[in-house]
């Protein structure tokens, strides 16, 4: 399957909600997603099946003074483990490269080994724990951080 990455729009909310409900025990509400879509300081990306136009994954990130905070990443159950979450994050890094003063941060369940491995492959490192962070079962969250992505250096080709 070929995936196309683009910004999410309000028309995508029903598909986002469907994936969200399949992915998390305490899903975000429609109004939470709509709020992030409307915020100029957020980036909301979707991964769409190029053949059908169906949403298969999404990423929500908010810009803060010193960091991009990855708020929500989810992939439809039938499309997990195919690199979609990684592609969304890599696209985010491309979009925000050059914002050298902002790194990236996120929280992930300590039990979510697959997600932790993905984040580590993408350059995130564990920086702490938020005790009892998740409201459904009081599970701890691992706080992960990635340093700012620098734009590639421009080579001086003058001799």
Molecular structure report:
This protein has a seven-stranded mixed β-sheet, sandwiched between helices. The mean pLDDT is 91. It has 159 residues and is an alpha+beta fold. The longest helix has 13 residues, at 84-96. The protein has helices spanning 13-23, 30-38, 84-96, 113-121; strands at residues 3-7, 42-49, 55-63, 67-75, 103-109, 125-130, 141-146. It starts with a strand and ends in a 13-residue tail after the last strand. It has a single domain (3-146), classed as Gcn5-related N-acetyltransferase (GNAT) (Aminopeptidase, 3-Layer(aba) Sandwich). 25% of the residues are buried.
**Helix content estimate:** 25-40%
Looking at the structure, what is the overall shape? globular
Taking Cα atoms only, what radius of gyration do you get, to the nearest Å? 16 Å
Biggest sheet, strands in spatial order? 1-2-3-4-5-7-6
Number of domains: 1
What is the average per-residue confidence, as pLDDT, rounded to a whole number? Answer: 91
CATH topology: Aminopeptidase
- Tally of helical runs: 4
The CATH class: Alpha Beta
Low-confidence stretches: none
N-to-C span = 46 Å
Could you give the order of the helices and strands?
EHHEEEHEHEE
Could you describe the largest sheet, including whether it forms a barrel? 7 strands, mixed
> How many strand elements?
7
The CATH homologous superfamily: Gcn5-related N-acetyltransferase (GNAT)
């Amino acid at each position: 399957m070929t995936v196309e990455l683009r910004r999410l729009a309000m028309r995508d909310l029903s598909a986002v909600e469907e994936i969200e409900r399949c992915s998390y025990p305490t899903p975000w509400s429609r109004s939470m997603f709509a709020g992030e879509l409307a915020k100029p300081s957020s980036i909301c990306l979707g991964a769409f099946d190029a053949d059908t136009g169906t949403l298969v994954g999404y990423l929500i990130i908010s810009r803060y003074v010193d960091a991009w905070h990855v708020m929500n990443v989810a992939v439809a159950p039938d499309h997990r483990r195919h690199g979609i979450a990684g592609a969304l994050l890599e696209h985010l890094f491309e979009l925000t490269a050059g914002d050298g003063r902002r790194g990236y941060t996120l929280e992930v369940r300590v039990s979510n080994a697959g997600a932790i491995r993905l984040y580590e492959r993408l350059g995130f490192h564990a920086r702490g724990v938020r005790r009892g962070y998740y409201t459904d079962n009081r599970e701890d969250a691992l706080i992960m951080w990635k340093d700012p992505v620098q734009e590639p250096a421009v080579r001086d080709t003058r001799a």
